[in-house]
Amino acid sequence: MSELWKERLKRHQLNQFKYLRLIFNDTFVLAFIVLLGALGFWYSNLLDTIHSQLWFGKLLVVAILFLTAQAGKLATMMEDPDSTFLLVREKQFFKYFKAAENYSRFLPIVLIAVITFLLSPFAVQGAGMNVWDVVFLGISTILIKMILLDVQLVGLYGKNQLFGVNLPLLMNLVYLILVLAASYTFTWLAPILLLVLWVWFNSKVKGFADAGHLQWQKAITDENQRMFRVKRFYNLFTDVPGISSKIKRRKWLDFAVNGIKLKHDNTYLYLFARGVIRNNEYIGLVLRLTILQVILLCLIDNFYISLIVEMLFIYLVGFQLKPYFKEVMQNLMQRLYPVAAKSKIAAFTKISNTMLLIQWFVSIFAVLYKFGLSANSGIIIVAGLVVIGFLNYLYMPHQLRKFLDNGEY
What's the whole-model pTM score? Predict the structure, then answer.
């Protein structure tokens, strides 16, 4: 079982590195750095407005740590054929799952440590805690995560209840009660009590597994769902085999295409417009990035960072729309349309232009809210238009023409 786990883990990591290398390109890293800088600047300004302990400060700290503890599931690497070909080795799978649990602990611990570190300034300034209080709460959150992973493991053997109560619900309630009580009294009590609980429950895990039976379909389904969520995230940045966007009719958006005249020259204009409206991936991408852009613009007071956010997010949306053109061109049936390549590019440019102008128009309200009718507002708004012009009249046509000329479809 140990060799099977090592083999699957190696294959899984190689697969993940392949996608991570594509995701963490120069554009994404630049956007991520700017986003971190903007959030850091906003967080610093927020802390400057807090001059006394907030009544809800401790509650907010505990709530954020509690939500952080819910992130991360047991990564078992189970596969569909396992229920048939490895059924005879069911009793030996406990060792396999323990190795999977050890692997699954790393990312949640790192995430909890990072969130705890980022929360510490607010916890000290807004919640009236000291550094050791924050450290003890962070350790408590790590311990409850260890317990929750044990709970997921025994759940694979059909053991979902303890004393007649749902196990995940019971453990989360214990954590909330202990941490809330400790945060208002002695914070060092929470990690001590949770450590005792973890040691006790961990000693019972093997007994739970021996008393139950491995739920093969549950284990396989849970892992498939976990990997689907991971791949769906990767699919926002690159094509992932086995992941396809859902298509929805969205009749209420028919007005957006009803204005397109049904004539030969508008064949691809209509096709692209319908596709973008019905495709969850692209309409969701534009919506998410626009909302994030507006939130950042409403929170950031610094002119230069706001300028970068405005230009960067418009560029990101335009850059992320480009794969849709390639997706349509790779459909063999579209080649039956007697439409010139120039018309295809012009049609896609119109769609891209429309979507970016909508994003730009929405962002104007956030800019005016923060800077009012001022020169700074005018510069940011014009800068957004400049990026749209660059994308749709210089960058995009050149890239799409190059794609068609090379015959990459």
Answer: 0.72
